[in-house]
Amino acid sequence: MTNEALAVENQSPTVEMKYGEREIEKGELITFPNPRTGRRYDIHITLPEFTCKCPFSGYPDFATIYVTYVPDRLVVELKAIKLYINSYRDRYISHEEAINQVLDDFVAACDPLEVHIKGDYSPRGNVHTVIEVRHKKAN
């Protein structure tokens, strides 16, 4: 086999990102107008497949994220929050920083009257962590 043929044979094929990976990489929180502005109501969202990586060990961390909020003018679109949460899967980020960042991004996206975000992490090494953060809009 010629050197040229060996070079072609040993090349890895170019792998194109799948459409889902491209959407997850964007990870944008998309909103739409609240259909009942002026009415106070709660929206509860459960995201049971949150993953990220420990910034110290690189081990995967798994959690269920609970979002409860009272919308003001905007509501977060559900598919968008799913893709946004999935964008954490390859990030090296602590439990504390992850949940606080989710809160910051959520508030920036929809400016709710109130929001409570809870990250309930699966036990690892006999340690179970729950992080809860809150935001309330100033009157």
Low-confidence stretches: none
Oligomer: single chain
- The helicity comes to 25-40%
* Rg value: 20 Å
Strand order of the largest sheet: 2-3-5-6
The DSSP helix count reads 4
Question: What are the secondary-structure elements, in order, as H or E?
Answer: HHEEEEHHEE
Secondary structure elements and their pairing?
Blueprint: H1 3-10, H2 19-26, E1 31-33, E2 43-53, E3 60-70, E4 74-76, H3 78-86, H4 95-110, E5 114-121, E6 130-136
Antiparallel strand pairs: 1-4, 2-3, 3-5, 5-6
Helix pairs in contact: 2-3
Quick tags:
about 140 residues; alpha+beta; four-stranded antiparallel beta sheet; two-stranded antiparallel sheet; 6 strands; flat
What would you note in describing this structure?
With 139 residues, this protein is α+β, with helices and mostly antiparallel strands. The protein has helices spanning 3-10, 19-26, 78-86, 95-110, and strands spanning 31-33, 43-53, 60-70, 74-76, 114-121, 130-136. The strands form two sheets. The protein has a four-stranded antiparallel β-sheet with strand order 2-3-5-6, with helices on one face. Strands 1-4 form a two-stranded antiparallel sheet. α2 (19-26) crosses α3 (78-86). The longest helix is centred in the C-terminal third of the chain and has 16 residues, at 95-110. The relative contact order is 0.19. The model has no long low-confidence stretch (mean pLDDT 91).
